[in-house]
């Protein structure tokens, strides 16, 4: 049986298709302010490429309520299920998406036992990082170096004010890698406090698009004094969880 999980995110829309529990197909595309249309596009692409249609669909994410097909499940439940697929022995999950951040605690069966979400401020989310890093026009090397140098101090976690602070630091001659290090360090401190409000882990599973920022992973590991585990495709774990739930 083919089962599909659609994660209709605010920035990207993701889809995973399983064939009897084995991953058959996966894809990520930009939501472009219309995650519902992006979800339809992914279904059409899968059908065109594989000449098959999923028998069961679970839909999650930002646009799930508006999607006309499939069963709706919260992204918290789907994220726990997807991360449990890779790490059944570890209970604490940090999910940093484009619009929000979540800390999820699951039990040995992969069921959610506790969770918290950040407020509606962009601070500590993928969007916060994307806006400022894009404005800085960083090279890949400058981004890599940021994990290994002394960070500049970034005081503001508001996207607008932090961008102004970054511009000011650069104007004073602070190097780009130092500024970037300061940015990631500030976000890591905020996220570490967020995680610690649920539990102090020895091991933390880090999912969502924010997990692709390796300097953030490094600073977060230092702040928590914990091992950080990254799923094979951190952005796809909620979609994977949705596909797994579709088969149950």
What does this structure look like?
There is one protein chain. A hairpin with a 3-residue loop joins β1 (2-8) and β2. The chain has 248 residues and is an alpha/beta fold. The model has no long low-confidence stretch (mean pLDDT 88). It is built from 8 helices and 10 strands. The strands form 2 sheets. The chain has a 5-stranded mixed beta sheet. It has a 5-stranded mixed beta sheet with strand order 8-7-6-9-10. It is globular, with a radius of gyration of 18 Å.
Question: Briefly, what is this?
Answer:
The protein has helices spanning 35-50, 75-86, 126-136, 140-145, 159-171, 176-196, 214-224, 237-246, and strands at 2-8, 12-19, 22-30, 56-60, 71-72, 92-96, 101-106, 112-117, 203-207, 227-229. With 248 residues, the protein is of the alpha/beta class.
Topology:
Blueprint: E1 2-8, E2 12-19, E3 22-30, H1 35-50, E4 56-60, E5 71-72, H2 75-86, E6 92-96, E7 101-106, E8 112-117, H3 126-136, H4 140-145, H5 159-171, H6 176-196, E9 203-207, H7 214-224, E10 227-229, H8 237-246
Parallel strand pairs: 1-4, 4-5, 6-9, 9-10
Antiparallel strand pairs: 1-2, 2-3, 6-7, 7-8
Helix pairs in contact: 2-8, 3-5, 6-7
**N-C termini distance:** 11 Å
The mean pLDDT is 88
Which structural class should the secondary elements be placed in?
alpha/beta
Shape verdict: globular
Trace the largest sheet across and list its strands. Answer: 3-2-1-4-5
Please summarize the sheet with the most strands: 5 strands, mixed
Strand content: 15-25%
| Count of separate DSSP helical elements | 8
Rounded Rg:
18 Å
Tell me how many strands there are: 10
The proportion of residues forming helix, as a percent range, comes to 40-55%
Poorly predicted spans: none
Helix and strand sequence = EEEHEEHEEEHHHHEHEH
């Amino acid at each position: 049986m083919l089962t599909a999980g659609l994660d209709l995110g605010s920035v990207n829309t993701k889809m995973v298709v399983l064939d009897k529990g084995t991953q058959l197909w996966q894809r990520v595309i930009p939501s472009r302010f219309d995650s519902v249309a992006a979800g339809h596009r992914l279904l059409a692409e899968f059908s065109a490429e594989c000449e098959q249609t999923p028998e069961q669909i679970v839909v999650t994410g930002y646009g799930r309520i508006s999607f006309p097909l499939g069963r709706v499940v919260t992204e918290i439940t789907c994220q726990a299920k997807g991360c449990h697929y890779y790490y059944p022995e570890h209970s604490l999950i940090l999910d940093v998406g484009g619009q929000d951040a979540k800390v999820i605690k699951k039990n040995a069966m992969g069921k959610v036992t506790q969770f918290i979400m950040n407020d509606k401020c962009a601070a500590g989310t993928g969007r916060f990082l994307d806006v400022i890093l894009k404005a800085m026009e960083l090279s890949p090397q400058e981004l890599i170096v940021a994990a290994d140098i002394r960070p500049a101090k970034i005081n503001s976690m508001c996207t607008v004010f932090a961008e102004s602070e970054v511009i000011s630091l650069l104007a004073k001659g602070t190097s780009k890698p130092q500024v970037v290090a300061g940015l990631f360090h500030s976000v890591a401190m905020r996220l570490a406090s967020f995680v610690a409000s649920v539990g102090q882990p020895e091991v933390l599973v880090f999912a969502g698009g924010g997990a692709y920022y390796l300097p953030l992973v490094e600073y977060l590991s230092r702040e928590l004094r914990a091992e950080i585990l990254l799923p094979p495709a951190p952005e796809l774990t909620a979609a994977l969880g949705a596909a797994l739930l579709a088969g149950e």
